[in-house]
Amino acid sequence: MANAGGLPAEAGVSLVPQRQDDESFADFAYRILCDELIVLDIKPGEPLNDEVISRRLGVGRTPIREAMKRLESDHLVVAYPRRGTFAAGVDIKDLAEISEIRHLLEPAAAARAARIASPQLRQELRDFAREVGQLLPGMQSQQDLMRLDMRVHRTIYRATGSRHLQDVLIRYDNLATRIWSLVLEKLPPVSQHIAQHIELLECIAAGDSEAAARLTTQHVTDFEKLIRAVL
Fold this sequence. Notes:
Elements lengths: L24 H14 L8 E2 L1 H8 L3 H13 L3 E4 L3 E4 L7 H22 L2 H17 L6 H18 L3 H20 L8 H16 L2 H20 L3
Antiparallel strand pairs: 1-3, 2-3
Helix pairs in contact: 1-3, 4-6, 4-7, 4-8, 4-9, 5-6, 5-8, 6-7, 6-8, 8-9
């Protein structure tokens, strides 16, 4: 048994993800496929067959095609006339350009979140900072750590209150995480890198925009150094 990306399933383990109550079928398919493409469960260059994916996710082919169009605009898949749709390649040479864009946008996003976050969201950020601190000591899987990193980034992006900024930041964080996934096996445990988020979340919650921007700049810089150290 295999998923749409050709992944084997362990006997007796269901790989069928669950759709959230408020989620459209297209959004559901997009969320699942996006995650699989980011963490390279679907390998670069691997074909994506909408009929196979439709059966696996229990979703009609029209929502799958809608999800594929979004994934193509995110540069996560590539569609070729008469050939089909394939997972986009991961080019390490893109790291410098992606990092440059993130250096410009991520600190600005963190500073904006620190300025405008609502009291309710600030409390959510404080709670999340504590959760990250509790999760890290028992988290051994590099992939689990990577997904936690993505959760933090998306929480901060949401706190900016800007849908347009959030969309751009997610797109480039996805591309950066694909590069991370490519070298994940070579990296030392990245828990210390993830731990930087605790202070960052607390600074945003406290409204310290200057510290939030500084810590974010350091985080993006450390990420690039971490990757380049194993290339």
